[in-house]
Amino acid sequence: MVIDDGQRRARAGRRLLLAPAGWAARVEEVADAVVGLHASDPATVYLSACARLREPSAAEVDRALYDEVSLVKLLSMRRTLFAVTDAFAPYVSAAAARQIAAKERATLLKHLAEFAEGWSPERLAETERAVLAALAARGEATTAELGADVPALRETMLMSVGKPYEAKQSVGSRLLRLLASDGHVRRCRPRGSWLSNSYPWAPVAPWPEVPVREAKAEVVRRWLASYGPGTVEDVKWWTGWTLGEVRRALADVGAVEVALAGGAAGLVLPGDEGPVAEPEPWAALLPGLDPAVMGWRGRDWYLRPRDVPALFDRAGNAGPTVWWCGRVVGGWAQRADGEVVWRLFEDVGAEARAAVEARVERLAGWLGAVRVTPRFRTPLERELVA
Q1: 185 touches 176 (CB < 8 A)
Q2: Average pLDDT, whole number, for the chain?
Q3: Cα 15 versus chain centre, distance
Q4: What pLDDT was estimated at residue 166?
Q5: pLDDT at site 156
Q6: E-assigned strands of 173-232?
Q7: Which of 80, 171, 231, 346 has the fewest Cβ atoms nearer than 10 Å?
Q8: Please, which residues bridge with residue 24 across strands?
Q9: What is the dihedral of CA 141, 147, 149, 153, to 10 degrees?
């Protein structure tokens, strides 16, 4: 069975909710459709979700993140922050977040030993218990507020010694992130707008225990359902796991091999080898780090290699992209006066331009007075706002 590039683009349009016919009513539907919303940049969760909602609004995302807490953020796959549904969170925690937390804890202890005084594994564990007790008493609090209850959080480490970006980092900022990866605390509504990086923390009840192997299989099953076909290399890159872990998870879900354009081997779930119907022509304006552009390691079927330098920073972070029928055809940005500006890399025709203009109007409409600057800025985004 061959699944060509056209079929892969059709699948992306339908399964990643990019074609208007598939737009969702609730943000939880969006998060599950893309497996997890990238959350390293606070704006990405909102922009990615609203690009796929029938009625886009920041309030809908706030509802899920902070009112109902049906969407939670976890430092997980590839040591990246993802927002996933509460039902999926136990699997992500067992499959990735706990492993990340263990590595982060070991790294923190190493840094404390090198760049701070009086720290040991026992003191770190004692500090964690004190933080959780303080949070239980307060209900929610910022890292700075917790520092009043647990003074150890205010201690600092000198990081990247001797390098141009040498800086002091508080123990508290690292420790709260650890506790979140372990599933003990969660981020609450930011102090300020939905773009703010200043937020309090709150304790959370433990998630149900899921065996690690079962959890990894479920993560891969969901990825194949949304992003398949993909290669073994795609799955390894997206999860950040070892090749052995990836192969075992693929075997556990019974992944089926198919041929991709050019003869490469791809994988899909059993029963998913057949064609899908082409959606109606569609355009999308997706933010930096959107799951669609960051979903695969091999991107040539939807992104021309020559366009990569304009759309990605040097660390491999994607900037805002313009899509037409499953291909990245340009980029966009928002200027200081609120205008959404965009540029196409090729002539895609009048229908495509009209569709892009409609998405620009839609985006500007729900953003209103909000101004968005990507956390990871790319050459084209900087050029467009200049």
Answers
A1: yes
A2: 95
A3: 17
A4: 72
A5: 87
A6: 185-187, 201-203
A7: 346
A8: 53
A9: 120
CA angle 372, 377, 380 (to 5 degrees): 100
CB of 201 closer than 8 Å to CB of 143: yes
Q: E strands within the chain?
A: 2-3, 37-38, 71-75, 81-85, 156-159, 167-170, 185-187, 201-203, 256-260, 265-268, 283-286, 321-324, 327-334, 340-344
Residue 182, φ and ψ in degrees, nearest 5: -80, -10
Letter for the amino acid at 379?
P
Q: Which two tokens stand for residue 144?
A: 């700075």
Beta strands at 2-3 and 256-260: parallel, antiparallel or unpaired:
parallel
Locate the domains of the chain by residue range: 89-203
How many residues are given for the chain?
386
Instruction: Say what angle helices 232-239 and 212-227 make with each other, to 10 degrees.
Output: 120
Please say whether the beta carbons of 117 and 172 come within 8 A: no
Which class for 208: exposed (0-12), middle (13-18), buried (19 or more C-beta within 10 A)? Answer: exposed
Cα gap 329→30, rounded to integer Å: 23
Question: How many angstroms separate the CA atoms of 285 and 292, rounded?
Answer: 11
C-alpha separations of 60 from 14, 24, 25, 204 in Å = 22, 11, 9, 22
Helix (H), strand (E) at residue 29: helix 27-33
Res 196: pLDDT: 85
CA trace torsion 244, 249, 252, 254 (10° rounding)? -100
pLDDT recorded at residue 242:
97
Joined tokens for residue 175: 């420790």
What is the Cα–Cα distance from 121 to 113, expressed in whole angstroms? 10
Q: Which residues contact 84 (CB under 8 A, 6 or more apart)?
A: 31, 35, 36, 37, 71, 72, 74, 76, 92
**The token pair that represents 263 in the structure block:** 């003869």
What is the band of 306 on the pLDDT scale with cuts at 50, 70, 90? Answer: very high
Tally: H helices and E strands in the chain: 15, 14
This prediction's pTM:
0.94
